[in-house]
Amino acid sequence: MTRYLAGRLLGLVTVLFVTSFVVFGSVRLAPGDPVSFLLHGRPATPEAMAALRAQYHLDDPLPVQYAKWLGDVLHGDFGRSAQFHQDVGSLIGSRLPGTALLVGYAALLVGVLGVTAGLLAALRPGPVDRAVLLGTGVATATPSFVSAMALVSLFSVQLGWFPGPGGTPEGFADRLYHLTLPAFALALTFAGLLARVTRSAMLDELGRDHVEVARARGVAQRAVVRRHVLRNALGPVVTVGGTMLAGLLISTSIVETAFDVSGIGSLLVQSVTAKDFAVVQAITLLSVAAFVVVNLAVDLLAPVIDPRLSLRGEGSS
Amino acid sequence: MTTTATPAAGTPDTLRRRPGLRALRVLGQGPMFTAAVVVLTALVLVAVLAPVLAPHDPESLDLSASLVGTSGDHFLGTDQSGRDVLSRLIHGARTGLFGPLLVVGVSTLLGTLLGVVAAWRGGWADTVLSRSMDLVFALPGLLLAILLVAVVGSGMTAPVIAMAVAYTPYVGRLVRSIARQEKARPYIESYRVQGWSGWTICLRHLLPNIAPTVLAQSAMNFGYALMDLAALSFLGFGVQPPTADWGAMINEGQSALQQGAMLPALAPSACIVLAVVAFGIVGEGLADRIAKRER
User: Fold this and answer.
1) How far apart are CA B210 and CA B217, in angstroms?
2) Most A CBs within 10 Å: which of B257, B272, B276, B282, as the mutation test of the A interface?
3) Both ends of chain B: CA-CA distance in Å?
4) Looking at chain A, which residue has its C-alpha nearest residue B26?
5) Interchain contact A313–B (C-beta under 8 A)
């Protein structure tokens, strides 16, 4: 187990190291002089140019530039945003709550909708099952920005139940209300898949011998499902659900842009458009880090939730 | 116990990494498969024959006819700039299919090459190639594409390159694993004994045997790539206006949507879902057929 853990951690560090190199090197990939790329049309005052040269350590040889840049990043210094004239770290910090709330809300919806639909399909064969299969099939093929358009047109424009994109919410309850449509748009694709995973895990367990034995002993259906089926089916549901959290972190930039939510994702899109490269670098690096860390955490936690997995976890490392 | 009690560990890569089109599996049989093939054929025909089929010029502006509803002249109405929505949809099938075609073509070729070399050579070549593919696989493709757009600017080039790189391990890891199984079969050894070179055996015998599985995976990847590239165009990073593209049309149709004009945004949305569902059903259907044949 220790060996497996060490291997996985080494893999994580490698991914992060390579990502940092790609993110750092991307400035060099850009055609022309890095300073004019980083300025991108903003007034080239001597102070601005000197600030950029200092921020990216452009006067040093390349390996030193990278080492210094990485050192800054590890100390939380991502430079200054050209667009907002603000420290990138604090800029991201100010946008973080919006994204955290949206992703948390969406994750909750994925869990509730996905597991409920999956249980329904597994326990009610026939028309209910078929309806869930069809619904989840379409949901998984619908990208979040398409869900966004459909939800806005139905629940905001037609019915007027929820506010459309934009608007300034006041207070926490109003904020949640404004985030309802975005959270659904973000959640639907993932909920569809989780429903499928729940359904097949439940069906696998329902067909087991020990379930048959419990039934033969006269245990009530409810108790059989709760004690013998659900608990065993939970492992894969939690594992797949966990990896979805990483997916939600990436898709959030699309949903935030579609609904004009102030968060990390919409900040990334704005910064690409405005050529605010320091912000783009910081968000890319942090998002990749969050993505791989979440995936690793899920892989490591899976055997804790479902001890049957640990037998294979070590072998397949 | 090992085969059935460990569903999570046995979950396929693509399913673990993203909301999978594998959910379309149950639909991938019988009449649905046929219907999906018909839809895809129709899409390709529409894309090829777009200039003939489109009733209007997809880029001709007519601000006096902004957001006209459905009529005999404009079957699906017009968008904010008075452009015919149907004609833009028809032309949008071109960019909608061409981008993913490039992504899938490059990633399939590159992935197959890397996968076969890794499986055939084994040893350190396998270690290096597998680790590199794992590394790329661990990175989210959409973010790579956004970073590349930030460097080289908007347009189809950056998204297509980034996505081709991001999808290569999807193919490469699959090819490596099935090529290793194939390599262990007696027929390969018998060709070797007959003195055939590794290249000849790979090209003439190994590749044809793994091709159907790779094709099924590529059909699924086509659906994913279509979604990803449409998402980038929706963000304004991919196909640039005024070129007709489904993702870009949804972006442009957002403000009209809030004024109550649904079609400019919802019609391309429907096209994207239809195409992705069709590719998913065909990919799953092919994979199922191969599994049945091998049993």
Assistant:
1) 11
2) B257
3) 21
4) A133
5) yes
- Reply yes or no on whether the pLDDT at A217 is more than 70: yes
Two tokens, residue A120 = 């329904």
CB B71 within 8 Å of CB B83: no
- Subunit contact B4:A137, Cβ cutoff 8 A: no
> Which residues 63-102 of chain A have a CB within 8 Å of chain B?
none
Around Cβ B22, how many Cβ atoms within 10 Å?
A: 21
Q: Give the confidence band of A317 by pLDDT, cuts at 50, 70, 90.
A: very low
Mean pLDDT confidence for B251-266: 84
Cα B76 from Cα B72, distance rounded (Å): 9
For A247, which of B7, B19, B227 is closest by C-beta distance? B19
The whole-number average pLDDT for the span B5-29 is 45
Model confidence, pTM? 0.86
Q: What confidence tens digit (pLDDT) does each residue in B148-157 have?
A: 998 888 889 9
Question: Would you tell me which residues 164-193 of chain A have a C-beta closer than 8 angstroms to some C-beta of chain B?
Answer: 164-165, 189-190, 192-193
Burial class from Cβ neighbours inside 10 Å (0-12, 13-18, 19+) for residue B119 reads: buried
Residue contacts between A and B (CB atoms, under 8 Å): 178
Yes or no: say if B226 and B275 are a contact pair by the CB < 8 Å rule.
Answer: yes
Separation in Å, CA B174 to CA A193, A285, B113, B115, B169: 21, 28, 12, 7, 8
Position B106 pLDDT exceeds 90:
yes
Residue B3: pLDDT above 70?
no
Residue of B nearest to A278 (CA): B150
Backbone angles phi, psi at A26, to 5 degrees: -60, -30
Average pLDDT, chain B: 83
Q: What is the mean pLDDT of residues B36-48?
A: 92
Is residue A72 over pLDDT 80?
yes
Q: What is the ipTM of this complex?
A: 0.86
Q: Do A152 and B257 touch (CB under 8 A)?
A: yes
Tell whether the model's pLDDT for residue A154 goes beyond 80: yes
The residue of chain B nearest to residue A196, with distances taken between CA atoms, is B23
Long-range contact pairs involving A70-76 (C-beta distance under 8 Å, separation at least 24): A70/A20, A70/A24, A73/A20, A73/A282, A73/A285
